């Protein structure tokens, strides 16, 4: 039984990693700019499509017709040769194999530009507008972005293979001296969990230990006073929006081997991430991260057959059920701050 | 001038006489031959006739929907006398002439069902009421098929189902106005069971992950019955939501469940995801109960196999049809489709194409678009040349009886299309079953409802 519980715990942490990363970005935006950004899931999806675009670039092929061989429908067979391998040989093959992690290098600047452009071009015009209007405009933006991706890449999910060396499962039990093959878990999912911890740690360290972060935190606490000190807090908040976009984008890139992305990916994660933010407490970064992992773990345990035998269908509603209970007991969420959305 | 003795005028006499004829009910006898010609839903009166293509162009089964659309467009071209004629040249017997249907050019409208039953039903309603579709066809989910079939029965429009594999479609939910060419889950069990027994032995413990809707339920039941008949034990059956995406929380408990076979009752993108993730969990490298852990996908298509890539190698499943079959019909369809779109057709494309042609042929044989007459023409119809050998459109449940294929993921593909191998062709006789087995009632064909 221990191994069953341990595996579900791992699965919960793995699921919670994606929730926590998206919720972290959402909270950064809400905490700094006070905007409820329904387009944040779309940023996760755009990040995933950075990986797709990068791989497409790497796997461009030259197509020639071989008249000596026929296709099943009787036409000369198309012979495809990858361009990158032809140019770079083995190094080209390595690039293709590691396209997902390498595409992080593309996603970071692209998502930063998208984030800053989004904030400057659209969202800043809605700072002083009611939250309902912010939700409407960002939700509309999410739909537009999804439709652009659908028109560009098609409606179907596009598989992104993980590097061959990182496929398969890691024998965690054997690593800790237990019997082999009892506790195994997909290696890439473990990598995703560690990756999310690193990103979360980096964001917290940036806010905690840099002057820029200190100013941002001060701005989050009292924007007017920081402005009165002569600090251009708006510019810093714009950069924070860009950083939130980068976090969402990187989370999306690394998620692609786990779930082939399509244009609905953002919406699939958005609703659950908002529940995570609300449960964690609006505007609370530690709350968002804690709630992300907590809800991931609960969702995973609720999927166990032993649990579903007691409460059928509990895995489908557990997150919302917990949200209701927590909001009843702690209306500001787990670590919510006084004054957030309480005007 | 004629003047009757009682003083009645000639005009009055004629009026009275006609009224008498009408009142005595003679008129229906005079006009009955063509009376129904004007009395049914979307009777095509112009030079064209419209098919309503209800296709999942987005959602979990979008890839099948896109391939179905290509097939329908090709079928409509062939019906209108364009292209190489495709299967019209090999269908036996055939009343098709390549000049449309009853001389009317075939046109079509489409609707994206989003792989959702309620959207499919709304789309079909729109195509019938707004676009005047004479026939609705398509779909890649049994949930959609059953919902649309029921609607078509209410509206008096024939529904030629696309890809639907649930036993219920031509079982407990069958309808007089609905017809299915595709095989079903029970037939998958008949075909797959013996092959699994031969390959994996009779002492296995199976764990089912099943899509939580009509198709998943009936496939799970059929495969469970087939494997338990071999002596296998069913360890656990778990329902998963359609379009779940991440199946990790359902796969994790499989690892230490004591099972040595995972049966994935999933289709489309769901199957691609669940199979890929199961392989990521190391299930194909595991040993359980002293045996190699195996994965089985009872219903599989070329599109899914392509999506799953390396992960599908060596995996067993069943298919309705495969482009590599060597009969004249399969070769003709593969040639036409490949030349038009640069890839071989999927089983979804094949069933869609065949259904469009069979409907057109039935109308030609009936000599009318009047649905009850077309239904009569389809019921009990025997045909050949469409790629599955001699086929019967069974009158009792509107299920096509034909051969079924057991396939396996190709270990050594020679091209990007060479992803599945046919390992066994189960004959029509062996895959036939009692039409009363799954219950249901077709309901009446007449009076034909009017879609007002």
TrEMBL record, chain A:
One GO biological-process annotation of the entry reads: amino acid transport
Q: Which GO terms describe its cellular component?
A: plasma membrane
Bilayer-crossing residues are 21-54, 102-123, 135-153, 190-216, 237-258, 270-297, 309-329
- Which protein family is it in? Belongs to the binding-protein-dependent transport system permease family. LivHM subfamily.
Q: So which domain of life are we looking at?
A: Bacteria
Protein keywords: Amino-acid transport, Cell membrane, Membrane, Transmembrane, Transmembrane helix, Transport
Any idea what this protein is called?
Answer: Branched-chain amino acid ABC-type transport system, permease component
Provide an example Pfam family for this protein. BPD_transp_2
UniProtKB/TrEMBL annotation, chain B:
Give the UniProt keywords, A-Z: Amino-acid transport, Signal, Transport
| Record Gene3D superfamilies | 3.40.50.2300
Query: Which InterPro entries does the record associate with it?
Result: BCAA_transport, Leu-bd, Peripla_BP_I, TAT_signal
* UniProt key word Transport: yes
Pfam family membership, one: Peripla_BP_6
Q: Does the keyword Zinc-finger apply?
A: no
The record's CDD domains line, in alphabetical order, gives:
PBP1_SBP-like
Q: Name one GO biological process term.
A: amino acid transport
Renumbered residue ranges of the record's region Disordered: 433-452
Indicate the segments forming the Leucine-binding protein domain, all copies.
48-410
Similarity-based family: Belongs to the leucine-binding protein family.
Q: Which PANTHER family match?
A: LEUCINE-SPECIFIC-BINDING PROTEIN, PERIPLASMIC BINDING PROTEIN OF ABC TRANSPORTER FOR NATURAL AMINO ACIDS
- Write down what this protein is called: Amino acid/amide ABC transporter substrate-binding protein, HAAT family (TC 3.A.1.4.-)
Organism classification = Bacteria, Pseudomonadati, Pseudomonadota, Alphaproteobacteria, Hyphomicrobiales
């Amino acid at each position: 039984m221990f191994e069953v519980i341990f595996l579900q715990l791992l699965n919960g942490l793995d699921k919670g990693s994606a929730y926590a990363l998206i919720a972290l970005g959402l909270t950064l935006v809400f905490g700094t700019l006070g905007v409820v950004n329904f387009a944040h899931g779309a940023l996760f999806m755009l990040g995933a499509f950075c990986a797709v675009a990068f791989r497409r670039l790497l796997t461009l092929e030259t197509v020639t017709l071989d008249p000596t061989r026929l296709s099943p429908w009787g036409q000369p067979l198309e012979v495809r040769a990858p361009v990158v391998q032809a140019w770079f040989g083995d190094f080209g093959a390595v690039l293709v194999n590691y396209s997902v992690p390498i595409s992080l290098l593309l996603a970071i600047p692209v998502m930063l530009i998208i984030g800053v452009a989004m904030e400057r071009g659209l969202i800043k015009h809605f700072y002083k507008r009611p939250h309902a209007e912010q939700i409407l405009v960002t939700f509309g933006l999410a739909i537009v972005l999804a439709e652009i991706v659908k028109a560009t890449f098609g409606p179907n999910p596009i598989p992104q293979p993980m590097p061959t060396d990182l496929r398969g499962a890691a024998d965690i039990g054997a690593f800790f001296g237990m019997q082999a093959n009892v506790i195994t878990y997909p290696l890439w999912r473990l990598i995703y969990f560690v990756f999310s911890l690193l990103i979360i740690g980096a964001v917290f360290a940036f806010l905690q230990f840099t002057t820029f972060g200190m100013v941002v935190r001060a701005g989050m606490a009292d924007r007017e006073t920081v402005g009165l000190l002569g600090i251009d807090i708006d510019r810093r908040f714009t950069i924070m929006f860009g950083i939130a976009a980068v976090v969402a984008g990187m989370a999306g890139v690394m998620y692609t081997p786990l779930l082939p992305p399509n244009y609905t990916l953002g919406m699939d994660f958005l609703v659950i991430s908002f529940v995570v933010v609300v449960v964690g407490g609006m505007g609370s970064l530690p709350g968002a991260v804690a709630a992300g992992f907590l809800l991931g773990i609960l969702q995973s345990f609720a999927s166990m057959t032993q649990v579903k035998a007691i409460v059928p269908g509990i895995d489908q509603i557990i997150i919302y059920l917990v949200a209701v209970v927590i909001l009843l007991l702690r209306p500001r969420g787990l670590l919510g701050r006084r004054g957030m959305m309480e005007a | 001038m004629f003047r009757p003795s009682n003083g009645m005028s000639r005009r009055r006499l004629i009026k009275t006489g006609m009224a008498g004829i009408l009142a005595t009910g003679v008129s229906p006898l005079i006009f009955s031959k063509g009376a129904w010609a004007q009395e049914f839903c979307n009777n095509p009166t112009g030079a064209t006739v419209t098919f309503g293509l209800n296709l999942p162009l987005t959602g979990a089964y979008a890839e099948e929907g896109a391939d179905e659309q290509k097939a329908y467009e090709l079928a409509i071209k062939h019906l209108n006398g364009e292209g190489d004629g495709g299967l019209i040249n090999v269908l036996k017997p055939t009343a098709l002439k390549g000049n449309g249907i009853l001389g009317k050019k075939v046109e079509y409208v489409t609707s994206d069902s989003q792989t959702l039953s309620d959207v499919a039903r709304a789309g079909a309603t729109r195509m019938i009421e707004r676009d005047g579709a004479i026939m609705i066809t398509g779909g890649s989910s049994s949930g959609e098929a059953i919902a649309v079939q029921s609607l078509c029965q209410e509206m008096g429009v024939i529904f030629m189902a696309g890809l639907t594999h649930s036993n219920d479609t031509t079982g407990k939910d069958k309808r007089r106005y609905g017809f299915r060419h595709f095989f079903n889950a029970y037939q998958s069990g008949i075909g797959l069971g013996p092959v699994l027994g031969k390959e994996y032995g009779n002492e296995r413990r199976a764990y089912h992950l099943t899509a939580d809707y009509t198709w998943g339920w009936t496939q799970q039941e059929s495969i469970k019955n087939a494997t338990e008949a071999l002596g296998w034990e069913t360890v656990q059956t778990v329902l998963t939501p359609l379009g779940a995406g991440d199946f990790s929380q359902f796969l994790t408990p499989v690892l230490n469940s004591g099972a040595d076979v995972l049966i994935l009752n999933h289709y489309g993108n769901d199957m691609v995801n669940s199979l890929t993730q199961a392989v990521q969990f190391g299930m194909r490298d595991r040993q359980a109960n002293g045996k190699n852990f195996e994965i089985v996908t009872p219903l599989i298509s070329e599109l899914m196999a392509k999506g799953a890539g390396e992960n599908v190698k060596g995996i067993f499943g069943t298919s309705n049809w495969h482009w590599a079959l060597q009969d004249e019909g399969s070769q003709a369809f593969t040639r036409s489709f490949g030349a038009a779109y640069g890839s071989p057709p999927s089983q979804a494309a094949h069933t869609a194409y065949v259904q469009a042609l069979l409907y057109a042929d039935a109308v030609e044989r009936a000599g009318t678009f009047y649905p009850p007459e077309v239904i009569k023409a389809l019921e009990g119809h025997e045909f050949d040349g469409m790629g599955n050998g001699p086929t019967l459109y069974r009158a009792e449940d509107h299920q096509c009886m034909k051969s079924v294929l057991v396939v396996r993921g190709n270990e050594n593909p020679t091209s990007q299309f060479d992803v599945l191998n046919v390992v066994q062709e189960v004959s029509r006789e062996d895959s036939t079953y009692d039409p009363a087995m799954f219950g249901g009632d077709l309901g009446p064909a007449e009076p034909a409802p009017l879609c007002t």
